[in-house]
Amino acid sequence: xxxxxxxxxxxxxxxxxxxxxxxxxxxxxxxxxxxxxxxxxxxxxxxxxxxxxxxxxxxxxxxxxxxxxxxxxxxxxxxxxxxxxxxxxxxxxxxxxxxxxxxxxxxxxxxxxxxxxxxxxxxxxxxxxxxxxxxxxxxxxxxxxxxxxxxxxxxxxxxxxxxxxxxxxxxxxxxxxxxxxxxxxxxxxxxxxxxxxxxxxxxxxxxxxxxxxxxxxxxxxxxxxxxxxxxxxxxxxxxxxxxxxxxxxxxxxxxxxxxxxxxxxxxxxxxxxxxxxxxxxxxxxxxxxxxxxxxxxxxxxxxxxxxxxxxxxxxxxxxxxxxxxxxxxxxxxxxxxxxxxxxxxxxxxxxxxxxxxxxxxxxxxxxxxxxxxxxxxxxxxxxxxxxxxxxxxxxxxxxxxxxxxxxxxxxxxxxxxxxxxxxxxxxxxxxxxxxxxxxxxxxxxxxxxxxxxxxxxxxxxxxxxxxxxxxxxxxxxxxxxxxxxxxxxxxxxxxxxxxxxxxxxxxxxxxxxxxxxxxxxxxxxxxxxxxxx
Length: 533
Hints:
Elements: H1 19-32, H2 35-53, H3 58-65, E1 68-73, E2 76-81, H4 82-107, H5 114-139, H6 157-165, H7 173-197, H8 204-222, H9 228-245, H10 251-257, H11 268-285, H12 296-310, H13 315-339, H14 349-352, H15 356-382, H16 394-403, H17 408-418, H18 422-456, E3 459-465, H19 475-487, H20 492-505, E4 508-514, H21 519-525, E5 531-532
Parallel strand pairs: 4-5
Antiparallel strand pairs: 1-2, 3-4
Helix pairs in contact: 2-6, 2-13, 4-7, 4-10, 4-13, 5-7, 5-15, 6-7, 7-16, 8-9, 9-10, 11-12, 15-16, 15-18, 16-18, 17-18
Family: Belongs to the NhaA Na(+)/H(+) (TC 2.A.33) antiporter family.
GO molecular function: sodium:proton antiporter activity
InterPro entries: Na/H_antiporter_dom_sf, NhaA
């Protein structure tokens, strides 16, 4: 039984006096693991930025973010504004998390099975190409704006999956997996676009230094260095070299992520036996009547066990779990606060919303994304390269494709790189914000209508797992709801059946639960494949 906010200590491990602390801590963990909460905070930060940008406080607000921070070491003096610290340093941490997510998917996730990953990967390519075509239709003949084609190509995974999480277990898990894998493939393409097309003229000397540092990181990986601190220290040097080279410094985060080990330094098979021996030693050494601080043998044994147990978790996994709440509840809201500041005061609003940049970005995200995703998905299925995910229909795919047009974070990031003029950046931001808002609402409505149709039939989609397999997607909220459905049904045979299927399926499975309202439905449910009344 897993701990919950209502029952933080199901196995009664902690003393009674700290149960309240445990309950509050679990609420914090659940909050900072929620994609819907992360999306809501980012949205709130963007709204605050828009309100301030169109108020008398905009000038001091802007001056604050342009405050320079000066750091000096010996004869070296570095200077950077707060806004650049967020965009160049903090966002490198975001890209580090993105890189860890991509590496996970490529090593043990959805991108390991090329046939299974073919549909979202090919759909992602379509979701990149179609917006480029639409943007170019409006801007190809204008040399000042034509290079902004990369702005409407990226999907914001946090917002898109946060919206999907609102639908809970009324949406098949295949839709979430499709959209999250598509967003990961989208991120890979966006990273390549930023590295190749939106950097300055690179310095070959600094590129060579960055390459040498990267070789050091790879050698550390090959030498089985599993401590995170050396990677972080050398990663800072890599960031500086990439920053000085002219290639955008956030790429250093992705490169660093790919060098961090995903394996454990502990032999897991031997650990099972060794840890069991240590537990028995601790039990034999423990004296209930003595203060724990006086029990040296007991303390020595449990300290050894704790030290080794911490090292069982791979470094990449430990780092990802550490970074997630900071990135999604601090870095990205700060990025939204400093970059969603579109001011309409004293400007020609009509000119903003009628510029070719606005049209290209707006229609590229709102129309280009779903058109490209749906078209390439349809061709992939018709050519029998891949099939639709289980329990997923084309209405689900259309809703997911429209949500692909939510391009907030990465799109604004690329806009800042693509346009040197503040006016063009503002035009692009208006297109991004308005298209993302409409795409989020329309995509949600499409999936909501399909969910209501499933609800009328009494159908729920239950995803279950043997372990913690939910990533930084909308799956965590759905998984909690799934647990309520399975465990709350009071059918022990069903719970046993679920575990059997999980073991056969490698730890993850989805069930279609059909709620029976009368005898006629009970007879019909018996004919539905994969359902259990």
